[in-house]
Amino acid sequence: MKIEAVDLFYLAMPTIRNVGDGSQDALLVRVAAGPWVGWGECETSPLVSIANWVCPMSHSACRPVRDAVLGQSLETPADIARINQHVRDLGLDIAQTDHTLSGIDIALWDLLGKQRGEPVYRLLGDKQAYPKTPYASQLFGDDAGQTLAKARAMREEGYAAVKFGWGPFGRGSVAEDREHVAAAREGLGQEVGLMVDAGTVWGEDVAQAAARLAMLDAFDVTWLEEPFVSGALASYQALVQHGSRVRMAAGEGAHNFHMARHLIDHGGIGYVQIDTGRIGGITPARRVAEYADARGVTFVNHTFTTHLALSASLQPYAGMQAHTFCEYPVEASELARRLTRTAMTRDANGQLHVPDAPGLGIEPDLAVIKAYLVPVEIRVGGATLYRSSEP
Amino acid sequence: MKIEAVDLFYLAMPTIRNVGDGSQDALLVRVAAGPWVGWGECETSPLVSIANWVCPMSHSACRPVRDAVLGQSLETPADIARINQHVRDLGLDIAQTDHTLSGIDIALWDLLGKQRGEPVYRLLGDKQAYPKTPYASQLFGDDAGQTLAKARAMREEGYAAVKFGWGPFGRGSVAEDREHVAAAREGLGQEVGLMVDAGTVWGEDVAQAAARLAMLDAFDVTWLEEPFVSGALASYQALVQHGSRVRMAAGEGAHNFHMARHLIDHGGIGYVQIDTGRIGGITPARRVAEYADARGVTFVNHTFTTHLALSASLQPYAGMQAHTFCEYPVEASELARRLTRTAMTRDANGQLHVPDAPGLGIEPDLAVIKAYLVPVEIRVGGATLYRSSEP
């Protein structure tokens, strides 16, 4: 097969709110090769990645993603690895390349899985997929009362663990943060796991994070996620040295294998959280999963959007039984909830299973794509360089 | 002053060749505040950064760069630092943000310097600028004969050091690479310094790089630049362990302070090479210079394009006497050579001086901008989101 066509679909809710909800828009990728079609999703700014797909060449290491994808041969997983590397070589000097590549790599795995009649995790070499324990992932309430109500609702939904993040957390005093975490714990009770996501709010400021450790310990928080930006390895390491029981989690900001490895090698994290829509797809995510497993770090997906993205983010570690948690979006936008024709729901034991179906096993609904499509046209030097396709 | 207007100018040669010459296009930035205008340059894919400037918000940490810049107050260097951080906060989840920010940060320093009647290095806290020793930076020839001729020409031009990079180097056998390095050394004679830039050709493959170390030692090469991609810290560290005399140089791929710091802390490099057009501007470049200086690592600029970019890349370490080398582009395109009304030329001793003039001390020629301007129009959802300004 040759990769004959790639289409990018920029989808968005009619109104985008200035909150930390990454499901308000989406960049879907459709790849066609021979009689097959694969789907992927980039966790990116859609317009920036569309520009990255078509941008004119600046020099030999600053080329558009499409130059490295269209016309490539696709027969085996090794071809996907080759294309992944080729995109990075040609796009070395364009920072956006990794985000744009992500949805394409995912779509290639989906396509190859469909062609072979195998789930992606099997193509990755795993014989069996193990169920994951989903944690409900949501934003903190605007005040502690809202956080309490959200926690109670998730407990009633039967989740074994719940994560709260972003919103007001870390932006005010330790006492204010404590109110939110106390409310979360009160609403969840003692049996439900609780994680806290600081959303990089402290930048690289160790003191701000350290001031919250005792409080997080007191409420038996499993992990503190992204106290710092992804690159602040020394800050992560310094915080770990405080000897709190709460482990550090990070990795969603990793754009490639190396950035995730740095957090493991030099940041002292206990959980590495990888978004296949950002790290360059399933190919590097799998490499991180294997690296983490070998070093006693727990791999977890990062997913806050659609169930297409969710299936893609679970495939790299579906076959790794020891890595049990998975992030499960429970506050996704109407767009994200409606996008796929099937959803991944919990079984009677509250466990989540990757679809036992070829590829990702999740298909988008073309009518929904049409309903939320944001048309884009880019003209450069007087000529049309890009115009959105019809779904 | 308030930042009232920012214009981006995409300039390009009529033909872009598929070679490692990054001067074939440019993204110039003009910032206006009160009666003042500042200029900067991004080392980026121009179209991708233009899209990043205007892209619709996806969520609170995925916003266009302009949202964090327009209307901001600009009175002091601390304001520039605040704006720099604000851009990163709002653009956290857009990988391209750092590249786009770079030219804006540079233009802010230029503007503030002009308003205060001071060169940028003084605003950074340095009383005096020290002359730098420029090394001529150019690509390897297509064959060893061409490399020999290029080396001879640079020796005749009186350069104290010359760097060859990219082209065929590292893509064939060790013997072929040896021919090129031998030719370079023959053309330069024994007195002229020689550096080699592998342009990340070996990815993370230590063996490929290690196989060249003895040869590089034999021809007295000062540094081996970018044997690996920026993130391959373990590969850098492993190569350093081979104990060659040749030092490792890297850093041009750093998009922020942290990435450069990682190469110093965990990569064992001897030279850190920072492009102010990529790392987010003069603000983070200065921080790298101070960090490197405190750890015995030599700071060097990375510049392959215009003299506007050259002045910007020298300001962060102009006042640091111990860091003497500077990269000096000698193969820039006609566009890059013609763009500025003045050039930074060597003095009678072959030394280079940052301009003793307000801001960067280098002004672009509006007529040249007009001549090379590539108009861009971006339409999203049926409305025009961006259209190139007139210079």
TrEMBL record, chains A, B:
Residues 144-246 form the Mandelate racemase/muconate lactonizing enzyme C-terminal domain. Signal peptide: none annotated. This is Mandelate racemase/muconate lactonizing enzyme family protein. It comes from Natronomicrosphaera hydrolytica.
